[in-house]
Amino acid sequence: MRTLDDLLAEGVSGRRVFLRADLNVPLDKSTRAITDDGRIRASLPTLQALRDAGARVVVAAHLGRPKGAPDPQYSLAPVAARLGELLGADVPLAADVAGEDARTRAGALGDGDVLLLENVRFEAAETSKDDAERGELADRFAALADVFVDDAFGAVHRKHASVYDVALRLPHVAGRLVATELGVLTRLTRDPERPYVVVLGGSKVSDKLAVIEALLPKVDRLLVGGGMCFTFLAAQGHGVGKSLLEADQVETCRRLLAEAGERIVLPLDVVCAPEFSAEVETTTVPVDQIPDDQMGLDVGPRTVEAFGRELGGARTVFWNGPMGVFELSTFQAGTRGVAEAVGAVDGLSVVGGGDSAAAVRQLGLDEAAYGHISTGGGASLEYLEGRQLPGLAVLAD
């Protein structure tokens, strides 16, 4: 796979570069202010390197899930403004994705200039299952530039026009973020330094089942928290009250527990409440004493201590998914405690993107404490499952 450094060695001054970035940041629903600019900041090393080399950069990205047509609430206008602030340069936003305004603005770029296209998902063809439809849009993307750089790791598991099809039409390389992500995930899958501990949270077992099946033969310990732990606890015969439960996955969890033995570590206690609310009164109980009329919304202090012991001796850690409903301060302690233990690991610690990365930032934890914070939760998990990611496969051609 060719990388950005290969492209820079060839020289890009005066050349137009189509850069697919992952700028899919969360916005406040009422003000449309960016609440976490981590993905924008992660795109800067590649973008600045291209600017410094004199490239004329056309940036493509998506935001949210618009329904294949322009929608003001998903406009990249706030992203263009923040990107300009971080770069210390004007970043105009094209009025369309790959139409007349995009063509005019791209053609007028000077060396080191940056143009951001409007949300690529405003075009239905971007996510189409039809190769010809995606190909027509990719043709328009390719007409805007001379070379393609993919730095959107969070989208490489998608066979989309701006990720996959444009790479079939232009010389292509992996950006620095994609190369870094790939290097870290390769270390996790090929020859991780041991003990190797994986921490999985989040709401549903079904969302993580494939990665659990793939990782179990490779890990020394798999620590399970979040809403998904209750299906495992039910598989052990415990009542889980009103907690999140996937009844159709109980037998699968029972099989996994039997196969894994002591390698799967479950919570010892949970923080319960009768309802999901910031003001509600909570109780912390052992996992075999969850009241019938309550739901578990975080792991308890004994669990944090036990998980911390497992993490304390680890040399490689991958963490994906919060331990509880960390968005509410009442249920943050479990995620905070485990996140701090992951950050203290003497070895490689990887935060697997998505809600885990959001938790690190929302809880005000030191990002520098972690070996790597991924920008792509779904892409990271699919890579660890051993699946072929279209955006990476096409770069390797």
From TrEMBL:
Q: Which residues bind substrate?
A: D22, L23, N24, R39, H62, L63, G64, R65, R121, R158
Q: What is this protein called?
A: Phosphoglycerate kinase
Query: How is the quaternary structure described?
Result: Monomer.
Which positions are annotated as binding ATP? K208, G296, E327, G353, G354, D355, S356
EC number in record = 2.7.2.3
Source organism: Geodermatophilus siccatus
- Annotated signal peptide: none
What is the predominant subcellular site recorded for this chain?
A: cytoplasm
Keywords attached to this Swiss-Prot or TrEMBL record, sorted alphabetically, are: ATP-binding, Cytoplasm, Glycolysis, Kinase, Nucleotide-binding, Transferase
Q: Where is this protein found?
A: Cytoplasm
Q: Which reaction does it catalyse?
A: (2R)-3-phosphoglycerate + ATP = (2R)-3-phospho-glyceroyl phosphate + ADP
Name the Gene Ontology molecular function terms of this record: ADP binding; ATP binding; phosphoglycerate kinase activity
What biological processes does GO assign it?
Answer: gluconeogenesis; glycolytic process
Source organism superkingdom:
Bacteria
Coiled-coil positions are: none
- GO CC term (a single one): cytosol
Q: Which family does it belong to?
A: Belongs to the phosphoglycerate kinase family.
| Keyword Kinase included in the entry's annotation | yes
Cite the binding residues for (2R)-3-phosphoglycerate. Answer: R39, R121, R158
- Gene field: pgk
Question: Which biological pathway?
Answer: Carbohydrate degradation; glycolysis; pyruvate from D-glyceraldehyde 3-phosphate: step 2/5
